[in-house]
Amino acid sequence: MSDAATRGAADAGGRGLMRARSVDEQHRASTPLELFFDLCFVVAVAQAASLLEHAVLEDHAVTGVLGYLTVFFAIWWAWMNFTWFASAFDCDDVFYRLMTFVQIVGVLILAAGVPAAFNDRDFGIVTLGYLVMRVGLVTQWLRAARDEPRYRRTATRYAIGISACMVGWLLLLVLPQTLRTIGFFAMVIAELWVPVITERSGPTPWHPGHIAERFGLFTLIVLGESVAATTYAFQSAFGEVSFSADLLALLIGGPLIIFAMWWLYFIHSAAGLLLDNRVAFLWGYGHYFIFSAAAAVGAGLAASLAQLAGDSVASPEVVGLSVTIPVALFTMVVFILHLRPHRPDRTLLAVFVAGCLGIIAAAFTPEPVLVTGLLLVGLVISGALRSSRSG
Fold first, then answer.
1. How far apart are CA 122 and CA 112, in angstroms?
2. Residue 21: which residues within 8 A CB-CB, separation 6 or more?
3. Whole-angstrom Cα distance, residue 207 to residue 154?
4. Structural domain that includes position 186
């Protein structure tokens, strides 16, 4: 039994109370339940990336990207809601685990609805998945409001705000198709605004080190899409696609991109940056772009391999941009969130801006994946050298 479960049982004489975790708790680590929760998102992320890949190959990149970003918001926000709650309140007793399982069922339903949402803009199944998840999440917030007087007002406001947004998503399903896009963006703003407003009534006791670890682990999950695409490339090298200089460039460039993205993200620990809610909101919300871009890189690498096999009607430039744009986005946002707070000099900023522009332009070279990998390695070396000097 975890420390949280032991403390909860002791406080309640065996009944289990939803007590707040300490922000100064030592050796706070992700629990097996949190890791299991993350694992269930792999299916949803993989589906979204696969659909993006097919859209690029069919030369529907613009509509594919819009569909991907829309679907990925649903995936990312579902993960965010659980992650921040679990950092502040986690008694790990039977009821807590059961409510987390309810949320996991909602994740699986959401994953099942990804193709319909992506291809037909039909969010019925995704909304059902959200409804199931929020039954579990709102129950947890109400339990925290009941058991933890210090955070009762905040927890109650979360429960009300999340429930109100859920009603909004349900109403969105009955709006005319012409109004759904506007309604969707209105609901996105409402969802993002609920934590901002609610935390003003009393910040929840999330743990900086724990949050940094949780986000790092999910970064590894989305990078797994690129690992899978690179694995397929290596399989192709052993018989499925005729070996060529272009395939060799992909085999070298793909791993370079993955390794460099990993290195860049983990140059600094983010735990020391998360000092208050203002910083945490910008940092946490900014990860939408990091997560979505990292998974999109996997789709771009897979599309590059498919093009070599002759399974694409899109131009080489479009397929190249499906790799270079998400790599550049990932790189720039990581710089803003992880490197810039450490006060790098203006030279490093200029290097990263120029590097990201060069990465995007690599789409118009004969070997965009390899050129992107080499440029990204150069940026990692620049960031690592600056980090060692400042350290």
1. 12
2. 4, 28, 87, 88, 89, 90, 205, 207
3. 17
4. 31-201
Judge whether 181 lies within some domain: yes
**CA 10, CA 306: separation in Å to the nearest integer?**
58
Instruction: Find the distance separating the first CA and the last CA of the chain, reported in whole Å.
Output: 39
Whole-angstrom distance, CA of residue 255 vs CA of residue 301 = 10
For the stretch 101-148, pLDDT in tens is 999 999 999 999 999 988 888 889 999 999 999 999 999 999 999 999
Residues 77 and 157 in one domain: yes
- Picking from 159, 186, 201, the residue at the C-terminal end of a domain is 201
112 plus 256 within the same structural domain:
no
Structure tokens at 123: 């969010």
DSSP state of 206: -
Buried b (16+ CB within 10 A) or exposed e, 55-76: bbbeeebeebbebbebbbbbbb
CATH assignment of the domain containing 269:
1.20.1410
pLDDT value of position 180: 87
How far apart, in whole angstroms, are the C-alpha atoms of residue 275 and residue 64? Answer: 37
Does one domain contain both 150 and 222?
A: no
135 and 226 in a single domain? The answer is: no
Half-sphere exposure at residue 120, Cβ-oriented, CA atoms within 13 angstroms: 9
Q: What is the pLDDT of residues 308-354, one digit of tens each?
A: 888 888 999 999 999 999 999 999 999 999 888 777 677 888 999 99
Question: Do both 220 and 328 map to the same domain?
Answer: yes
Q: Please check whether residue 107 is in contact with residue 142, taking contact to mean a CB–CB distance below 8 angstroms.
A: no
